[in-house]
Amino acid sequence: MTGMTQWVETIPAFVVLTVVLFLPGWLVVRALGSRGLEALAVSPAVSVGLIAAAATVAQRVGIAWGLATLAVVTLLAFAAAWGVGLLVGRLPLRWAGTRAPTVSPSRRLLGRPRPDVVGAIAIGVLIALVTILPAIGRPDELVDSPDAVYHLNRIALFLDTGNFSIANPTFYPNGFHAWVATSLLPGVADVLPGTNVATVVLAAVVWPVGCVALVRHALGSSRLVTYAGGLASAAFVSFPTILLGWGVLWPNLMATALTPGALALMLQAARSRRVGQWLGFAAALPGLALIQPNALVALVVFALVWFGSARMRAGLLGHLGWWAVARDLAILTAAVAVGLLIAPVVSARLASTQSYQWNDRVTTWTALVEVVGGRLQIPHVLWGLLALIVLGIGWVVMRARAALPVVAMWLACVVLYVMAASSTASWTALITGYWYNDKVRLASLAAVPGVVLVAAAAPALRALLSKLPPLRTRPMVAAALALSVLPLSTVVLDAPTRSDFLSSFFRPDAPHKVILSFEAQDSLREIARLIPPGEGVVGRPENGTPLMFALFGTDTLYRSIPIPTTGDEIVIGTGFNDLVNRPDVCAALARHNVRWAIDSPHTYWLDRPERTSGLTDLDTVEGLEKVKTVGDYTLYRITGC
């Protein structure tokens, strides 16, 4: 069976994941008063907020979580939002800003999509699917990243226990996991292929929708710009390609994919001053926080940059005195500085996040080449993309100055990237620590305003082409040629680089980079059949055994790579080879009902042998009975406790 045939079989999972992600939030945002593409673009964030928060509350009050519960929660939220929307509609003009035109209830709910918007999104979706699916290979292909082990096991834990809470098993944002697990409840896919399909939904549906919405708000609603937005959504390798496999930063993938839609609604609300749109934007914020809090920080950064740019522009145009501009910017700078200093003092979790350190520091020039030229983790500069960005900036500066704040947003991302990639000063972590001081996450964030700059290259190219004698009287041909340059200089030109790069995450070129091959999965699947349900098994996480829980439902002690440094996990990991003389080891095994052990010569590259020194060479350990060897894996029954 070919990979594409297997992808076709995942269409039911694709549909369920998409509906669960869009429908609840869309109903709520529409009821609040947001309409059009912006309501659709922001709806996934609202949906995730409903799912993650309601699932946590449901667990606390003893209500089973499922699609039926989600339907009830959605109806209640829709009714509440409709009531708020009606109330807002009756507010005096001085409170409501520019009042929305009166429309029928059915039109208010369903809207009327524009064909060019639908076409632009469809183009973005199609390009994403064509470039992503073959590179991944198969829906059940495992991305070889240690973080994937944790995320897959958490989704499996939600499904196994029925507890979708943010505190299961420990406190961690549950937006991504709760959405995926809720969508998999009908049995449309297993955990691994279902999660892969979920990431495709984010990269190939959510991201293009948000990009088209953002581009239209930044550059206008012409058909040329609209189609350019759909094409520009596929222009970057830094997003979504990298976050589909590196890390694996799936919650960050989701948060970044949702950011353009939220930013578009924020810009729309700021311009229209309609309370309903502000309420829709506010409704999206909890969901972003429950996916990855740095999405909120990113929106704050973009809002601050937008405000500062707007003040500067007002000063240049004479709409505001320079004294007032300087005063406002000084207040803004002081507030930001105080906030940066206080935040890690108030939040120990943030302080821990800001303490992440990376060893691959580069020069400032190299960092600029990586983020501006797209040469991050790939061997060469993406010259086509770079040319479009430069051309787009030129167009904004010369002809579309209302979009200058977006250029400033992109420059802010570039500065953050350079700080994270090149700075060794401790104070920079106060700023870049919200993204774990990780330049990869910041490169992905730069793609959000970067999409607008790439799209701006389309009208610039049309203007240049229209100067050619054969095209002076043929504007449609000039526009079509201008649009064609966008995919030709990015998607087509960079196709081998993009495909090989994404494929390397799923099919590494060295055995030690593979967590669990298909052959190893078959071996562990056969071993899993020998372990009675409910009985636990332990093995070095670096040999891939933690994935037995996500793949086969086997109760594994370790469900992440590497293991924790405290608690029963480290007691068993370091003392298992002396279990006949270690009552504390036997007590820890009993607490987790661990009665089996697995040994294997395979070792994943992220090896922490000091944490599992007692789980090697199990054939020499007293108190174990060898049961069966399948491939590189040997199962032992624990008899010494």
Features:
641 residues; mainly alpha; Rossmann fold; 2 domains; 5-stranded mixed β-sheet
Overall description:
With 641 residues, this protein is mainly α. The protein folds into 2 domains: 3-89 and 111-505, no CATH class; 513-638, Rossmann fold (3-Layer(aba) Sandwich). It has helices at 3-9, 11-32, 36-61, 67-89, 93-96, 105-110, 115-136, 146-161, 175-184, 191-219, 223-232, 250-272, 275-291, 294-317, 322-346, 348-354, 364-372, 383-399, 404-422, 429-432, 439-465, 475-492, 495-506, 518-528, 547-552, 568-575, 583-591; strands spanning 536-539, 555-556, 594-599, 624-630, 633-638. Strands 2-1-3-5-4 form a 5-stranded mixed sheet. Helix 12 runs antiparallel to helix 13. The radius of gyration is 26 Å and the shape is globular. The model is unreliable at 92-98 (pLDDT under 50). Keywords: Membrane, Transmembrane, Transmembrane helix. This is 4-amino-4-deoxy-L-arabinose transferase-like glycosyltransferase. InterPro entries: DUF6541. It comes from Humibacillus xanthopallidus.
| Total count of helical runs of at least 4 residues | 27
> Can you summarize the main beta sheet?
5 strands, mixed
What is the averaged pLDDT score?
A: 93
Question: How much is the radius of gyration in Å?
Answer: 26 Å
User: In total, how many domains does the architecture comprise?
Assistant: 2
Biggest sheet strand line-up: 2-1-3-5-4
Summarize the structure.
The chain contains 27 helices and five strands. With 641 residues, it is mainly α.
